[in-house]
Amino acid sequence: MASSSTSARSRPSGDHLPLIMCPDCGEVQVETNISGVPGPNMGRRFYKCPIDSGPNKCGWFKWEEPYVGILRRRQTSAIRAQPRGVHQAEQGGMLVPQPPPARRPQQNTAWGTNWMMIALMANTVVNIILTIALIGRM
């Protein structure tokens, strides 16, 4: 965990993770800042709900390390909920939808399918032979 704390503390002040809607109240986007309070957390980045006073106070708060976990869980959930055939690309640590690649016309012949299987099997055999050769040299 020390390495993640170190990387979070060495991150430039303007460089922050993507901001999401507050996980607790869902009313507003979270905000981020760097702790200026003297002590062990000085210089640490945190994320919090801006609704931190009044009758509708939310008070949600996370240091950067746990916030990364929230983003990863959301990213994984979004990928699982995605319909088949939807492709994504990484942008700034988050996945964003991308159009599917252009499809090549399918070969309708049995020879095309068999040729692909032969090529895959040949590749597997070559990999096995190379692995055995490398193990033999050890």
TrEMBL record:
Q: Where are the transmembrane segments?
A: 115-135
GO-annotated molecular function? zinc ion binding
- Give the keywords, sorted: Membrane, Metal-binding, Transmembrane, Transmembrane helix, Zinc, Zinc-finger
Task: Give positions of region: Disordered.
Answer: 85-107
Can you give the residue ranges of the GRF-type domain? 22-67
* Database matches in Pfam families: Zn_ribbon_GRF (PF06839)
| Protein name per the record | GRF-type domain-containing protein
Native species of this protein? Hordeum vulgare subsp. vulgare (Domesticated barley)
Lineage, please? Answer: Eukaryota, Viridiplantae, Streptophyta, Embryophyta, Tracheophyta
